[in-house]
Automatic annotation (TrEMBL), chains A, B:
PANTHER family reported for this sequence: D-LACTATE DEHYDROGENASE (PTHR11748), D-LACTATE DEHYDROGENASE, MITOCHONDRIAL-RELATED (PTHR11748:SF111)
Cofactor(s) for this UniProt protein: FAD
GO molecular function, one term: FAD binding
Annotated protein name in UniProt: D-lactate dehydrogenase (cytochrome)
Family per record: Belongs to the FAD-binding oxidoreductase/transferase type 4 family.
Gene Ontology biological process terms in this record: lactate catabolic process
Length: 467, 467
């Protein structure tokens, strides 16, 4: 467990706000240790810093009212979705109020003719897709967890489909948000494109609740493709697999998914999901298009894979086979934990220009071996993004120190390759020093924006930038 | 000609800065009326407000130096690319210095393996594509003019390919910019995706030089498709054409271009480009993909068009025929002016959810007829965006007043349909009142950002928002 830094607490303000919210929200305002702890950071390696109370909001107006009370007394407000962020995003280093948005989970309108929908922030990606299925539509962004769409927008999340469909920044048309003074704004209309003023939509996406609290989201949707085919192919080395990916991207095959699992990850998945895949680096793919189109994509991919020594290439349009394969991929995290029972998983998240991908993945594997870590690698490699999941004994100071040194080494290597310390997890508390290394003076511009929009630093303080 | 509002001038500051720049830049600092007038607003209907001097910068450091001088004396600085913006973006309502970036026109690096390139802001889209052609790459965004890429980024431009490839916001990976105090920042690294902090890239894109001056751009590139096919199809009515477009989008055909020309526009193009297209509403299309893919797309389109009474449908993979067709489309503006020699063209730019497209285009035609305007309509209809080009006698107060009433009526109708007053031209001076109507309190958040990043309001004052 990594110690998180506590910030000064405004005790009298917190006491006042707690009293007011108890009166206004009754049972929907909780201060029990269990609820508070669950709303502090519970995933991965950062110490839990509990809020002082959790309020379960049911409407934008309620969120606005809560923020106004907190603003009046300069008390921190932290937006909470499903709590599946990985870098301490929902911690309360200065205490304050967590606004749990899970009860704001209505799908308000689906405009199927415009391929968009308007939802509340607590809707999860799986719930949305279940709702859309009958209309032949889907929402493509799929981080590992069944996260809330508000949280996904706030962290600029992506997942396995980003190579084709982009990230949250590319799939949100407009937001409604409550600002630090409780004001409610709408960032854009529902038109597919606009040049109307500053792009507040994109400014809020990835701001991790530090500039505003997202209370409504207008999302772009996709039609479910006529045909979907999936494929897998084994490779003699990570390098060969990465070279293949580079060729696929440069060739312009519109792959919907292209995921790398290294040999250790394949081994873990075999054990966890009862598969018998060859325990060498593996690419999992998905093709979306017309019946003829997916066949053509699969064939073109096969020819490229062949050049790089790909073996056991099989493509299928069977929904059952496809689901089994992707279920195993989605369970990679749990499968990995099975490699070292009782261990904590610490995930890295660097992303580099694709020409540097093979090099950094190979270097990461060597470094992990040197440090003696068991750490499977999975990657959204079509975007140059991969995760190594370090399996550590969090009670061992030595292991934790080595893990931190690896995280730091990898972030700096990615940055030196013109890449980023975080492709999709966000900055939170854990990546703050790397953000400064990555973007230098630009972070001062971020600070200026934060100060302008949240002068009392009440929105999720201690995250993203140091104010 | 519409009178633009003058803002207070800082005469002593301007005199000082003018002297300093003359000394530092010699012949690269121009104060002749001709050069100054050319750098005030010259396109469409807004009065020219000249800067006091024009400096031709050659490097980021020079831009930074110029901004520092202007900042020290609180003198306006206006970035200038090709001067093809349409809403008074480059006007100097408070005087000041125009920084002409056309000499910063180097393509610095093409990373063909990563499908990106790094360029200076003065590179034009045609120059870039000429440079890329040999490498099998292209940059898809194509506003009507051969604009500079810095200007395109600053106005969040798009064009005929946006339906498939998005707008400038979707095709820029990173920016270098000079901020209001002369500081140079980089907004992102070159990785394809990132969750590293606030999205300053997207904040600067569309900020029209009011938050920073773009001095370097990292652009995403596309591989030239294996096959390109183009097509045209005539329709009995604008409504039938729009219904077809809606179906195409909802069906998920990945059209690269789908452009509407109304009957009057077809007539103008026939006359100007020596064509003999049927003078009824027309859709022009382009399909990108594999050889088989473009054939399939063209067939699917044909079947949909048939349902809505499309006639004369022809698709071709001939480069010559394709170029002739798209050249005629790109010359639509000049062709339109030919309908009323001596008239000024005033272009509208609304964009609505596609389900409302047929309705608003038909309403626009009716209104134009009522007002007695000759005003051809062209549209990037796959995005719900269209332009009516009003041909007006700018010396007639009555016509100008009617034109303004139409622009206003159309913007408000688009906003009432959850659309935007500007799909791609930007706010500049001309659309400022509509921005407030469209986004309400969100514009106050924009003002707060503007004040934080440019406290003395020296960067392109009098544009986008009122500070």
């Amino acid at each position: 467990m990594v110690q998180a830094i506590d910030l000064p607490r405004n005790e009298s303000g917190i006491a006042t706000v707690t009293g007011v919210l108890k009166q206004q929200f009754g049972d929907r305002f909780q201060t029990s240790a269990a609820v508070r702890e669950q709303h502090g950071h519970t995933t991965t390696w950062i110490q839990n810093q509990m809020p002082d109370g959790v309020v379960f909001a049911r409407s934008t107006q309620e969120v606005s009212d809560i923020v106004k009370v907190c603003a009046a007394h300069k008390v921190p407000v932290i937006a909470f979705g499903t709590g599946t962020s990985l870098e301490g995003h929902v911690n309360a280093p200065a205490g304050g109020i967590s606004i749990d948005l899970t009860q704001m989970n209505k799908i308000l309108t689906v405009h199927s003719e415009d391929l968009d929908c308007v939802i509340q922030p607590g809707v999860t990606r799986e719930d949305l897709n279940t709702h859309l299925r009958d209309q032949g539509l889907f929402f493509p962004i799929d981080p590992g967890a069944n996260a809330s769409l508000g949280g996904m927008a706030a962290t600029r999340a992506s997942g396995t489909n980003a190579v084709r469909y982009g990230t949250m920044k590319d799939n949100v048309l407009a937001l409604e948000a409550v600002m630090a003074d409780g004001r409610i704004i709408r960032t854009a209309q529902r038109a597919k494109k606009s040049s109307a003023g500053y792009d507040l939509t994109r400014l809020l996406i990835g701001s991790e609740g530090t500039l505003g609290i997202i209370t409504e989201i207008t999302l772009k949707l996709q039609g479910i493709p006529e045909a979907i085919s999936s494929a897998r192919c084994s490779f003699p080395s990570v390098d060969a697999a990465c070279q293949t990916v580079m060729q696929v991207i440069q060739f312009g095959i519109p792959v919907a998914r292209i995921e790398l699992l290294d040999a250790l990850q394949v081994k873990a998945c075999n054990a966890y999901s009862g598969l018998d895949l060859p325990e060498t680096p593996l690419l999992l793919l998905e093709f979306h298009g017309s019946d003829a189109g997916v066949v053509e994509q699969a064939e073109t991919f096969g020819a490229i894979a062949d050049e790089f020594g790909g073996t056991g290439y099989t493509a299928t349009t069977s929904t059952e086979e496809r689901n089994a394969l992707w279920k195993a991929r989605h369970n990679a995290y749990w499968a990995s934990l099975g490699l070292r029972p009782g261990a904590k998983g610490i995930s890295t998240d660097v992303c580099v220009p694709i020409s540097r991908l093979a090099e950094i993945v190979s270097a990461a594997q060597e470094r992990l071996a040197e440090l003696g870590f068991m750490a499977p690698i999975v990657g959204h490699v079509g975007d140059g993004n991969f995760h190594s999941l370090l399996l550590v004994d969090e009670d061992s100071a030595e292991e934790m120190e080595k893990a931190q040194s690896y995280v730091s080494w990898l972030a700096e290597m990615a940055i030196s390759m013109d890449g980023t310390c975080t492709g999709e997890h966000g900055i939170g508390q854990g990546k703050m020093p790397y953000l400064v290394k990555e973007l230098g003076e630009a972070t001062e511009v971020m600070v200026a924006i934060k100060r302008a929009l949240d002068p009392d630093n009440i929105l999720n303080p201690g995250k993203v930038v140091t104010v």
